């Protein structure tokens, strides 16, 4: 049934509210990729089977990712009159029990994650209250969602629906305010008004480059040509970043709605979403969402009775990082290899098939409906002077609370790592946080009080980039990190520019020599020179920012490089060629476990048995391949790594 | 693939240049690689030079000109997984399967590839086998994991 009028839309909203908040018990399992990879599928099936078998009056549901990936699988239970209860790290066995306990009006305290008493509907600027009349037993003392340090400082605009709706139900998206901004845009605003609003909001591209979105839309609108395109860059390739994936899997309609509004403002009637090949679940969710939007008349001819027509095509990538670059992405859609071209002429003038094209990142598009609904004045109050709004970050690596967070720009790195991230596990010492993916750099402890936004991190040799934040501790080798990024870039370089193709290769070779104990001090200056040439002479941002990981680690961790070169030592004990594994004879209990797991037969000794004394085990340095299996297998801390 | 099977795929995606990647991915998915004869046929039908098709086949990591195994193992070497020891997991797999990354076992059972960031960074190190994600891996979990596949 096609939605034609606002009344139609409101009827669907009513229906969506009934689905979101049914009269009976509803149990939802987080089934984004992070949930599934920790076993959410089995948890879901267990609950489903139990409900069917015991004929329990329970609705089972799937949602996207609620952000705290460390604690997946997450299951939440909703019943009218009671607080909404979330459980963490749920296994199939736990799932069985907590379902039955709930029926008895009880919760299992130790397994709780948090409870909620209301939900924020940020598009509509209101809170949906659960109207609590009774409390299940065992709930006293449970944290409220907002009290948890991980969620406490977050402001969810882009992640507004993730974990709260079933992405396959368009009605739920509409219930929480979705597609009303589109209605407003098509019926109450002119294209120029929409562009002005986006400009006034201060929204800057969320993919990494941070170009003012309103300005981009305006150039595209003004460009000559009847046929124009809007594109969504969903080729999220920065290792360590998965913000876009979460939005696509958990709230695909938010991107679709943003694109329709943008297309209307710019004057485009066709759009493309370019999704990474490595995101099969996101592709599936998008396919379902696009299909539903078409069924409901939100895509296609005469959208919402406005006379505006627009359709979206889904394009699947082929596993090439460089296709995240705007011109390479467009070349890929055209059926060519993903080689960037020089941007003397911007893609807003001549892009896909030489037509005016507006490309924005997933998160950028997703912000648009909220800006239209709440207004640019509200939006521009969030964030800093030049970086308005919020940003989604992925905090991963050596940090206690890993997952996705969305915070107003201007928050400091220290707040992110320690207050939200919960600090470094096992009491280890913080060493650096890598931001901006392969285009970014490493930021040391001394700079942790820097506010995070588009400009401040660039001043110190890094960048905010797409939002990946990888925390590193004392057991991370910064030379190894530089080598890692250079390896990545050399593999992903399209090869067009000699400076990038050869430069990344040579820098990688030099870094390899340093990590294998063959480095020379003059290599450090050589790295800097090579880095500078690579950046200057390459035409796209891959080559243009390739040296950043090397240069930033050289800037802040030069001593570590020198240690590798002069003393042939890796202080973090990572660089294999420089390590020595040794069994401490005093600590060896002669259990023989290490010899058993050694793939190189490099460990000899005699097991201690009841009948015979053993001989302490010893590693033959010549044969040792330094895989670390003995170290991992020893339960008595008898193996030392030097 | 038979020519008529390829014809069907071409009709589904459209006889246009922009469909080439999708068409090749369909063939890759069914055959586990891109047979030369299939590429020659596509070149004829779509009137795209064979060299252009080879260029595309060698540019995109999702495509391969050599047969891949029945079970594809993608070890994530994204930054977060790397920092959590992803490299060691890859080496353990190389030892167990007796192949290097990028190769296929002699019995064509397994192919081993590395991939940059699957987006499960909280669960690193991660590997995907046949589309199924396995997180929180350690070296000693590998042998039993491999046994699950026929």
Describe the structure in your own words.
The complex is a heterodimer of chains A (642) and B (150). Chain A is of the alpha/beta class and 642 residues long. Chain A folds into five domains: 127 residues, 3-Layer(aba) Sandwich (Glutaredoxin); 201 residues, Rossmann fold (3-Layer(aba) Sandwich), CATH 3.40.50.11540; 84 residues, Ubiquitin-like (UB roll); 89 residues, de novo design (two linked rop proteins) (Up-down Bundle), CATH 1.20.1440.230; 62 residues, Alpha-Beta Plaits (2-Layer Sandwich), CATH 3.30.70. By secondary structure, chain B is α+β, with helices and mostly antiparallel strands. Chain B folds into two domains: 57 residues, no CATH class; 77 residues, Glutaredoxin (3-Layer(aba) Sandwich), CATH 3.40.30.10. Chain B contains seven helices and four strands; from the N terminus they run ααααβααβββα. A four-stranded mixed beta sheet of chain B has the order 2-1-3-4, with helices on one face. In chain B, helix 1 packs across helix 2. The chains are: A alpha/beta (642), B alpha+beta (150).
Strand pairing plus helix content of chain A: what structural class?
Answer: alpha/beta
Write down the secondary-structure element order of chain B: HHHHEHHEEEH
**CATH topology tier name of the largest domain in chain A:** Rossmann fold
Tell me the total number of β-strands of chain B: 4
Q: What is the CATH C-level name of the largest domain in chain A?
A: Alpha Beta
- As a percent range, the share of strand residues of chain B is 5-15%
Counted up, domains of chain B total 2
Q: What's the CATH class label of the largest domain in chain B?
A: Alpha Beta
| CATH-defined superfamily of the largest domain in chain B | Glutaredoxin
What would you call the structural class of chain B? Answer: alpha+beta
Q: What portion of residues of chain B is helical?
A: 40-55%
**What strand line-up does the widest sheet of chain B have?**
2-1-3-4
- Mean pLDDT across residues of chain B: 90
CATH topology of the largest domain in chain B: Glutaredoxin
Instruction: Count up the helices of chain B.
Output: 7
Overall mean pLDDT of chain A: 94
Number of domains of chain A: 5
- Percent range of helical residues of chain A: 25-40%
């Amino acid at each position: 049934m096609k939605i034609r009028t606002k009344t139609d839309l409101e009827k669907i909203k009513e229906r969506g509210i009934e689905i979101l908040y049914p009269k009976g018990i509803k149990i939802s399992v987080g089934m984004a990729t992070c949930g599934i990879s920790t076993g959410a599928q089995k948890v879901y099936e267990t609950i489903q089977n139990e409900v069917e078998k015991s004929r329990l009056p329970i609705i089972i549901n799937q949602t996207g990712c609620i952000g705290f990936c460390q604690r997946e699988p997450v299951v939440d239970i909703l019943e009218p009159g009671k607080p909404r209860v979330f459980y963490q790290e749920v296994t199939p066995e736990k799932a069985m029990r907590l379902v039955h306990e709930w029926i008895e009006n009880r919760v299992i305290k130790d397994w709780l994650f948090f409870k909620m008493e209301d939900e924020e509907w940020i598009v509509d600027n209101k809170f949906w209250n659960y109207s609590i009349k009774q409390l299940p037993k065992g709930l006293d003392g449970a944290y409220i969602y907002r009290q948890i340090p991980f969620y406490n400082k977050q402001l969810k605009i882009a992640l507004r629906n993730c974990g709260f709706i079933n992405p396959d139900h368009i009605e739920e998206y509409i219930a929480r305010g979705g597609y009303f901004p589109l209605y407003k845009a098509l019926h109450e605003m002119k294209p120029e008004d929409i562009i002005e609003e986006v400009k006034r909001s201060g929204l800057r591209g969320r993919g990494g480059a941070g170009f003012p979105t309103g300005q981009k839309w305006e150039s595209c609108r003004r460009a000559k040509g009847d046929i124009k395109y809007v594109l969504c860059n969903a080729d999220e390739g920065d290792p360590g970043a998965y913000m876009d994936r979460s939005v696509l899997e958990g709230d695909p309609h938010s991107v679709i709605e943003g694109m329709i509004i943008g297309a209307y403002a710019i004057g485009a009637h066709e759009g493309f979403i370019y999704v990474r090949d490595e995101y099969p679940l996101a592709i599936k969710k998008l396919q379902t969402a696009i299909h539903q939007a078409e069924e409901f008349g939100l895509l296609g001819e005469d959208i919402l009775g406005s006379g505006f027509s627009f359709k979206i095509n889904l394009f699947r990538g082929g596993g090439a990082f460089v296709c995240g670059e705007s011109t390479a992405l467009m070349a890929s859609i055209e059926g060519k290899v993903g080689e960037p071209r020089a941007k003397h002429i911007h893609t807003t003038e001549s892009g896909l098939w030489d037509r005016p094209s507006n490309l924005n990142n997933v998160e950028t598009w997703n912000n648009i409906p909220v800006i239209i609904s709440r207004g640019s004045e509200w939006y521009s109050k969030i964030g800093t002077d030049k970086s308005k709004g919020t940003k989604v970050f992925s905090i991963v690596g050596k940090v206690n609370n890993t997952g996705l967070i969305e915070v107003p720009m201007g928050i400091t790195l220290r707040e992110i790592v320690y207050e939200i991230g919960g600090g470094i596990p096992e009491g280890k010492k913080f060493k650096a946080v890598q931001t901006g993916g392969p285009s970014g750099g490493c930021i040391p402890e001394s700079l942790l009080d820097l506010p995070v936004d588009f400009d401040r991190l660039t001043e110190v040799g890094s960048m905010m980039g797409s939002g990946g934040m990888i925390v590193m501790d004392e057991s991370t080798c910064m030379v190894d990190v530089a080598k890692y990024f250079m390896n990545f870039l050399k593999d992903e370089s399209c090869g067009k520019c000699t400076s990038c193709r050869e430069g990344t290769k040579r820098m990688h070779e030099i870094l390899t020599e340093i990590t294998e104990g063959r480095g020379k001090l003059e290599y450090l200056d050589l790295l800097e020179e090579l880095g500078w040439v690579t950046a200057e002479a390459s035409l796209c941002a891959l080559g243009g920012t390739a040296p950043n990981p090397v240069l930033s680690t050289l800037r802040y961790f030069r001593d570590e490089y020198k240690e590798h070169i002069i003393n042939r030592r890796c202080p973090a004990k990572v660089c294999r060629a420089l390590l020595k594994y040794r069994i401490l004879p005093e600590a060896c209990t002669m259990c023989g476990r290490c010899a058993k797991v050694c793939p190189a037969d490099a460990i000899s000794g005699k097991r201690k048995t009841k009948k015979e004394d053993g001989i302490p085990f010893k590693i033959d340095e010549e044969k040792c391949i330094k895989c670390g299996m003995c170290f991992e297998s020893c339960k008595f801390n008898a193996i030392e790594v030097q | 693939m038979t020519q008529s099977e390829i014809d069907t795929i071409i009709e589904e995606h459209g006889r246009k240049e922009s469909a080439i990647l999708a068409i090749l991915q369909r063939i890759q998915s069914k055959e586990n690689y891109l047979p030369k004869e299939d590429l020659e046929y596509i070149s004829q039908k779509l009137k795209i030079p064979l060299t252009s098709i080879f260029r595309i086949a060698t540019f995109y990591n999702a495509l391969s000109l050599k047969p891949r195994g029945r079970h594809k193992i993608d070890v994530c070497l994204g930054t977060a997984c790397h920092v959590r020891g992803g490299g060691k997991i890859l080496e353990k797999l190389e030892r167990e399967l007796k192949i290097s990354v990028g190769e296929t076992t002699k019995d064509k059972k397994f192919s081993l590839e590395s991939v940059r960031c699957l987006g499960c960074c909280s669960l690193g190190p991660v590997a995907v086998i046949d589309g199924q994600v396995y997180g929180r891996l350690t070296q000693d979990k590998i042998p039993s994991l491999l046994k699950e596949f026929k």
